[in-house]
């Protein structure tokens, strides 16, 4: 083949430090577009971004030459710095150290996008801890429940 043809969809989830509810509606309105720009500048394609006050979900498409860890690291580091430098700075703001990422089949892209964009409604019924454990189990990711929410 003369060129690399790739469509890799990834659902990424990470929370604020200790799941502190730092991300109110006003911050969310600025933060999500800023994170979208970071992702785009690194060559990935944002499909959806959503979340609530203590965590973020991102669905993106990676190119063949990109590393997921590099995209997540840059998104978290640059957005955290930006939050600290804003006039409405949140001095205690930080993202958790880790993240979860799941491959998404093209056949499930619309389902996952809808799930991400409807986080407010989803979390009226399910807490973050239950959501994360459900995602990890559904995707058959090995984890230690005692260390999951450090």
Topology:
Blueprint: E1 8-15, H1 25-41, E2 45-52, E3 55-62, H2 68-85, E4 100-104, H3 109-117, H4 119-122, H5 128-138
Antiparallel strand pairs: 1-3, 1-4, 2-3
Helix pairs in contact: 1-2
Number of helices: 5
Largest sheet: 4 strands, antiparallel
Helix content: 25-40%
CATH class: Alpha Beta
Detailed description of the structure:
With 150 residues, the chain is of the alpha+beta class. Helix content is 39%, strand content 19%. It has five helices and four strands, in the order βαββαβααα. It has helices at residues 25-41, 68-85, 109-117, 119-122, 128-138; strands at residues 8-15, 45-52, 55-62, 100-104. 17% of the residues are buried.
Keywords:
single chain; 150 residues; Alpha-Beta Plaits; 4-stranded antiparallel sheet; alpha+beta
Short note summarizing the structure:
By secondary structure, the protein is an alpha+beta fold.
């Amino acid at each position: 083949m003369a060129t690399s043809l790739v469509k890799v969809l990834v659902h990424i989830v990470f929370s604020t430090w200790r799941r502190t509810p730092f991300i109110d509606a006003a911050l969310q309105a600025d933060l999500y577009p800023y994170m979208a720009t970071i992702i785009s500048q690194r060559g990935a394609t944002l499909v959806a971004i959503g979340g609530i006050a203590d965590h973020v979900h991102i669905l993106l498409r990676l190119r063949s030459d990109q590393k997921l860890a590099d995209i997540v690291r840059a998104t978290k580091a640059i957005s955290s710095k930006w939050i600290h430098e804003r006039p409405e700075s949140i001095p205690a703001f930080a993202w958790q150290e880790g993240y979860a990422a799941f491959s998404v089949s093209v056949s499930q892209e619309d389902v996952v996008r809808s799930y991400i964009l409807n986080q407010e409604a989803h979390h009226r019924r399910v807490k973050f801890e239950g959501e994360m454990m459900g995602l990890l189990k559904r995707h058959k990711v090995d984890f230690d429940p005692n260390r999951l929410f450090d």
